[in-house]
Design a protein that fits this description.
This protein is of the alpha+beta class. The model is unreliable at 1-49, 290-297, 442-448, 935-941 and 1208-1220 (pLDDT under 50).
Length: 1241
């Protein structure tokens, strides 16, 4: 036996009787049953020997009702996750994300699961605590599975393995469930993330801006705007105006949503179509060309027959005879014309003929035509080689359609199935068809004797204006002209054309303004809280396993009591084992033994808890007995061994320093990563879905491991704190409180404070803070759309011709201007209002082009533009002379109201002042306008100004009839100016939300020549004819009072509105001239129109470089470190570190025990090694813990742990002389008198 360690002060011998006089008591069995049948649940004491103690205690957290509560919680969590997943998948997220919601949904799941884990930890601990007692209650088994069984101190992995091997399935289940919950907590940090997602919203208020009206009046006065639009769609690849698609005219909808939002709404849609049938056609002949027709055109006479319509003779526009240079005498042609069935009058006999054919011409020398001059000529005969032809009748319907559009681009217009169709009572289908022919009376459509050859896949086809538009609209790339011989294809081409132009006409002439509210839906790109499917299903699977395991535990947990009360404290253990004198005697000298010696000396022992009869007290008492094959053999007493005091590895200074350095390093890493994230707009690009799990789970792993380290330290401190405290003196009333493990953390902190162990309180508080690490790490990194910024140089690819004499600006530019003014058409590329930009291109490929979202990229630069400027003079009333002659009798034109006007100051070409312009004014006219000047619409006079704008108001019921006149003379010039411009997409479309902003200080004269100016100042005959009847407004003023920037027509009669009229004229003139400037574009290296002075020889617009900033706000998805979460985590880490250091510095030595105190044998050895059992009456009744606490010495008694003197009698029994006294290691009760005696000694 090792020598006892010397004591600075030896304990005095207690004054009570000897501790364990083995001859003063004995136990014997109360039944003749074998020991294997002494299970406490089955043993029944004789009626004459009742027991004083009942086994009522079983672990609270192992009761079935508690386990059922856990099962319910797990199932509810599963249901919640599944519901959240379904909602997220259905609604593209569970909510729109913002900072508050993001933290709530991110921290919430982890925090809730952490609370569940804390509660389950009680179940796990109590299962480990009670496991050896369960084994003791069943039968005698090796001590390694009872008194020496320790499931509390080892790591969970070892506990899981050992408990499974020992068939302690309750422990295995609780440890497994605890591990699963920790895994669920770990992965729950990635359950919900903030992601930019397209969200299909529910109800969203919208406003219908117009509605279809049952009135055909405006159809009769349809202008040519519809033909302008259809021509723009066919020739310029324009997009249809608002409220028009390829097949439908539909109600325009206004929302307050961003232009990038996709919306869905059900509105009324107007659709036109043609009902066509294939008919027979025969060429009836071709008259010879007119002598006066230099093009040699022929008339085309046909006969048409069908079951319900026959036409004996129809003259169609002739087909050009091929020239000799073509080496062919046949021509492909296409016609779209109106015909009337013979014998059927009115609308019932109207038809549309769609006709495609191949005609061959040859000279009929049998028919000579004699001319007075030029010699004889011969008749030309046409032969129809092949053809396809349809007779069609128009129809229309209004039906409910669903409009899906993204911003201003219509994506789909589809009919809503099951909704009825309707028509307008006063609108016939032929009214719309007639309006179509009326709209076609424009400069690019041809008359009865005209035709135009166009190329269809390099094959010439002569078409009328309607078929030109039809083919231009409907032909796909690679379309073959000869495919029109197929009647179905011809039907598709003509029907598609009519649907399109009919939709335009219906929108223009059959709608009126409205403001009806409706409900639609919107798909927005929002930061949404997305439930990750993989994480959700994994969590569900793990929680389902928890449900199964916990359900299994329901059938394994004890259904009845095991012990008189909980064995969690030393005092409770004394109460439980107060009649287990044999066990106490056997372990009385084992207080200083280590685990190895205890195992060696107890390995052949078997113990069992049972009720045994005490002959002294004549009671049946609960005890733990050593079960031997030799019934009368006393158990061997373990010899005293002074083992080395152990120091837990986790509490070693090296371990603590490592933990502190890890925390400091983590704080530094977090701050550096946050700095990098802020500096670089994130930590990395997101290339795949799975990187999200990396950035959420890795932090959870790191902080989870750190929390486990704090937990391990806290466990050891709370495990050793009672013994560390007993190294000093502990008041008797505090002794029952010396237990800190079987409780929640807040309660443990409170008890540590009451025990005056601040070092333990600090360490436990540090762990409490550390338990929050995983929760707050869930939101440490986020997936966000980060604007990606780079730079690129732009250069002019096309600019403006500076010198062009007698240039012809065709009507196309005015057509586009008309669409802008009358159809709210978006400004074409590189134009905005009065600004015309050179066509710009990047000088090199855009950096990061492979990651840029071309539709969301924004490019900002300062670039040059040209614009028209007007220097105007408003004439006073006394400078305007007018004359109105009512009922003037013109010998040629008949009776009319003749109006004449001239403006003093605009008579440069008429110094005598006799020149004037005159107009006939009907009596129902209120407003009249005219624009005159160089190339003006009225050629009667010229003007000094480039343009003279004149307007007047009439009231034929008042005197004077001419109520008001106004005149504005303007000279136009062109200047260059630098502009802050923002372009959208890599195609460089100007951003209407960030319109160009001219830098007025940079305005400079343009190098455009005067001859070019004059070419740009043509008249306005190319503008669309807008019906303003009965008013007499020219095309310019018609647009001025009907465009989106219109002035009210009443302003033309208000002298106080002259300034507004002048501003409106300048603005509209700027729009028209900007579109006309686009017709002058030439390669930029051939012009210097936008350069600022001085301009050197050879300088051109292509040489300039314009630095542009490229910003893509959405396509770059980055992992961004959240500042708030970082600061919270740093604060928590710092607080935990500070408390940890305080607890370490204030803590007494943790080297207090030679072994782990978490086994029954270890605790009993400490209790038996001291004198606590000597204070209990021998053979007395069973005492509960609170009564035992009262008999442990006087009120001033203290409890102490260490090496103490052995009572004299026991010393003699062990062969000692007791001169210096024998010592053993244990827990002693010391009264104040004994302490005083000790101090005197």
């Amino acid at each position: 036996m090792n020598e006892a360690e010397p004591l600075a002060t030896r304990m005095a011998t207690p004054t009570t009787t000897s501790a364990y006089p083995t001859n003063s008591y004995q136990y014997r069995s109360v039944s003749e049953e074998s020991r294997s049948d002494l299970d406490y649940r089955m043993f029944k004491a004789p009626a004459s020997n009742p027991t004083e103690v009942s086994l009522t205690w079983r672990p609270f957290y192992l009761r079935r009702v508690v386990l059922l509560a856990f099962i319910t919680i797990f199932i509810l969590i599963i249901i919640t996750i599944e519901i959240l997943l379904v909602v997220s998948n259905k609604n593209s997220g569970i909510a729109t994300g913002n900072a508050a919601q993001h933290y709530l949904w991110t921290y919430g799941p982890t925090a809730f699961l952490t609370a569940i884990a804390a509660l389950w930890a009680r179940t796990e601990y109590q299962s480990k605590l009670v496991a050896p007692w369960v084994r003791l209650s069943q039968h005698a088994i090796p001590v390694s599975r009872t008194l020496l069984l320790d499931y509390i101190s080892p790591l969970s992995l070892f506990t899981l393995f050992n408990s499974w091997r020992n068939k302690d399935h309750i422990v295995s289940i609780t440890v497994a469930v605890s591990t699963l919950i920790k895994v669920v907590i770990l992965i729950s940090s990635g359950l919900i993330s903030l992601s930019l997602t397209s969200v299909s919203g529910g109800s969203h208020p919208m406003v219908l801006q117009d509605r279809f009206v049952d009135n055909n009046t405006r159809l009769a006065t349809t202008g040519n705007l519809a033909s302008y639009i259809i021509h723009g769609l066919a020739a310029r690849n324009l997009t249809p105006p608002e409220g028009i698609s390829g097949n439908y005219a539909f109600q325009s909808v206004q929302t307050n949503l961003p232009t990038t939002v996709e919306t869905r709404v059900i509105v009324d849609g107007f659709i036109n179509s043609l009902d066509c049938e294939v008919v027979d056609i025969r060429l009836a002949g071709a008259s010879p060309p007119s002598h006066y027709d230099p093009r040699g055109l022929l008339s085309l006479n046909v006969t048409i027959s069908s079951p319900d319509c026959n036409i004996a003779l129809k003259r169609l526009p002739g087909v050009t005879q091929p020239s000799a240079a073509t080496n062919t005498n046949s021509t492909l042609f296409a016609r779209f014309d109106q015909v009337q069935c013979d014998g059927i009058t009115g609308v019932a006999g109207k038809r549309i003929l769609a006709f495609f054919g191949n005609i061959t011409y040859h000279t009929d020398y049998a028919h000579k035509i004699n001319f007075i001059a030029g010699g004889p000529r011969y008749d030309t005969v046409g032969v129809l080689d092949k053809s396809s032809q349809l007779l069609c009748t128009p129809n229309y319907a209004i039906e409910r359609v669903e409009i899906t559009r993204n911003g201003t681009h219509k994506n789909t217009v589809v009919p809503v199935q099951g909704t009825p169709q309707r028509t307008l009572g006063s609108v016939e289908a032929w009214d719309i068809m007639d309006a179509q022919f009326t709209a076609g009376q424009s400069g690019f459509l041809y008359g009865e004797d005209g035709g135009k050859p166009i190329n269809v896949s390099m094959v010439p086809v002569e078409v009328d204006g309607y078929m030109e538009l039809a083919l231009g609209l409907q032909m796909d790339t690679g379309f073959q002209a000869t495919s029109l011989f197929d009647p179905d294809i011809l039907r598709n081409i003509t029907t598609g054309y009519y649907r399109q132009i009919g939709a335009i006409i219906a929108k223009e002439s059959l709608t009126e303004p409205d403001s009806t509210k409706t409900i639609g839906s919107a798909t927005l790109n929002e930061n949404r809280l997305i439930v990750r499917s993989l994480i959700a299903q994994l969590m569900v699977g793990l929680l389902a396993a928890c449900v199964l395991l916990t359900t299994t535990a329901l059938f394994l947990v004890p259904g009845e009591g095991l012990l008189p009360h909980s064995p969690n404290t030393l005092l409770n253990l004394v109460s439980i084992l107060q009649h287990s004198r044999g066990l106490a005697t056997q372990l009385s000298f084992a207080g200083a033994s280590d685990d190895e010696h205890l195992d060696r000396y107890l390995e052949r022992s078997r113990f069992q808890s049972q009720f045994a009869y005490d002959s002294i007290s004549n009671q049946t008492q609960f005890c733990v007995e050593s079960i031997s094959d030799e019934r009368n053999k006393e158990p061997d007493m373990i010899p005293q061994i002074n083992s080395k005091i152990i120091h837990p590895i986790i509490l070693h200074p090296a371990s603590r320093i490592t933990l502190c350095l890890s925390v400091v390093g983590l704080i530094i890493a977090l701050e550096l990563l946050l700095y990098k994230s802020n500096l670089e707009d994130g930590l990395g690009d997101i290339g795949s879905t799975y990187i999200h799990y990396t950035w959420t789970i890795i932090p959870a792993l790191v902080f989870g491991a750190l929390s486990m380290a704090f937990s391990a330290v806290d466990f050891e401190i709370r495990n050793l704190a009672p013994y560390m405290k007993m190294k000093e003196y502990v008041a008797r009333d505090k002794f029952p409180q010396l237990e800190l493990l079987d409780m929640t953390l807040p309660k443990a902190i409170y008890r540590e404070a009451t025990l005056r162990t601040p070092w333990a309180s600090a360490t436990t508080t540090a762990f409490l803070i550390a338990s929050l690490f995983t929760t707050f790490s869930a939101s440490l990194f986020q997936e966000l759309a980060v604007p990606m910024t780079t730079s690129v140089d732009l250069m002019a690819d096309q600019s403006f011709f500076i010198s062009l004499d007698n240039v012809f600006i065709d009507d196309t530019s005015d057509q586009i201007a008309s669409l802008i003014l009358e159809s709210n058409y978006t400004f074409p590329r590189f134009t905005y209002q009065d600004l015309a930009f050179p066509e710009l291109v990047p000088t090199a490929a855009t950096p990061f082009a492979h990651t840029l979202n071309q539709s969301s990229v924004s490019i900002s630069a300062v670039v040059p533009a040209l614009r028209a400027t007007m220097d105007c003079r408003m004439y006073e009333p006394d400078q305007i002379f007018t004359n109105l002659t009512l009922n003037y009798d013109d010998k040629v034109l008949g009776t009319r109201n003749h109006f004449e006007a001239r403006v003093i100051g605009e008579l440069c070409n008429d110094p005598d002042g006799t020149n004037f312009f005159d107009l006939d004014v009907p009596s129902n006219v209120t407003y009249l306008t005219e624009v005159v000047g160089s190339g003006g619409q009225d050629r009667h006079i010229g003007s000094c100004s480039d343009k003279l704008f004149f307007w007047a108001k009439f009231d034929f019921g008042a005197s004077p009839i001419v109520q008001h006149t106004g005149a504005l003379g303007c000279n136009t010039s062109f200047e260059a100016v630098d502009v802050d411009a923002t372009f959208l997409g890599t195609e460089l479309d100007l951003d209407p939300r960030n319109p160009p902003r001219p830098r007025e200080s940079t305005a400079r004269n343009s190098t455009l020549s005067a001859s070019t100016w004059r070419s740009l100042l043509n008249d306005y005959l190319g503008l669309a004819s807008i019906d303003t009847s009965p008013q007499m407004l020219d095309t310019f003023f018609a647009a001025l009072v009907t465009s989106p920037w219109a002035i009210p027509i009443s302003a033309l009669g208000d002298p106080s509105a002259n300034a507004d009229i002048e501003a409106a004229i300048k603005f509209q003139q700027g729009i028209i001239q900007a579109q006309r400037l686009t017709a002058l574009r030439v390669p930029a290296n051939q012009t210097n129109a936008t350069l600022a002075e001085p301009i050197g020889p050879g300088d051109n617009d292509a040489q300039s470089r314009f630095n542009a900033t490229v910003v893509d706000a959405t396509s770059r998805r980055r992992v961004v470190q959240d500042a708030a979460s970082t600061h919270i985590l740093v604060a928590l880490l710092a607080a935990a570190l500070l408390l940890f250091i305080v607890g370490w510095a204030a803590s007494p030595s943790t080297s207090v025990l030679p072994r782990k105190p978490t086994t029954i044998a270890s605790a009993v050895a400490l209790l038996a090694g001291g004198n606590l059992f000597s204070y209990l009456p021998i053979g007395g009744p069973w005492l509960p813990p609170e009564e035992i606490a009262q008999v442990l010495g006087g009120t001033d008694a203290r409890v102490w742990m260490g090496w103490g003197n052995v009572p004299d009698e026991e010393g003699r029994l062990n062969g000692g002389e007791n001169e210096a006294g024998l010592c053993r290691f244990g827990i002693f009760v010391v009264d104040e008198d004994e302490r005083a005696a000790q101090r005197e000694a």
